[in-house]
Amino acid sequence: MGAEIRDPHNITIGTKTTIGHNCTLDGRGGLQIGNNVNFSSEVMIWTMQHDPQCSNFGIESSPVVIEDYAWISCRSVILPGVTVGKGSIVAAGAVVTKSVEPHTIVGGVPAKPIGKRNENLEYTLGNQGAIWFV
C-alpha cells in the first residue's frame, strides 16, 4: 500500500506486524522489527543519514530495533541507532533521536517521555483489517 522498503535483505520482521500506508522502512543500516508491532500511516524509519559534522557530507549508519508490541503512530520518524522498547508508543509526529525504554510513551520533537503504558499486553494484531501482515 505504497510502502517504501530500502534494502529489504537487511530487514527482519516478526509475526503479526502491521505496516500502514506510505511507510518508509530503511534497511541499509539494519532494521529489526518484532512481533505484533503496529506502524501507522506515513511512519519513517531511517538507519542511515548524513553526518552534519563531516566536511564532505559523509554518511553514517546504525541499526534500528523495534521490539514486540510497539506502536509507532502516524507521521513519526525514528532515526539511526534507536531501539524502541517492548510495548512502547511513539506518538504521532514525534521524532525519535534516542532509544525508548520499554512500555514508555514518547512524543514531541525531539521525542521525550510523556507517559507509561500498561505492561500486560496480550493482543495479537492481524484481525483488525490492517494493511499488511507478515
UniProtKB/TrEMBL annotation:
Domain of life: Bacteria
UniProt entry keywords in alphabetical sequence: Acyltransferase, Transferase
InterPro entries per UniProt: Hexapep, Hexapeptide_acetyltransf, Trimer_LpxA-like_sf
Pfam families assigned to the protein according to its UniProt record, in alphabetical order: Hexapep
Entry keyword annotation includes Iron: no
One MF annotation (Gene Ontology) recorded for this entry: acyltransferase activity
UniProt record similarity statement: Belongs to the transferase hexapeptide repeat family.
Protein name as catalogued: Acyltransferase
Species: Plectonema radiosum NIES-515
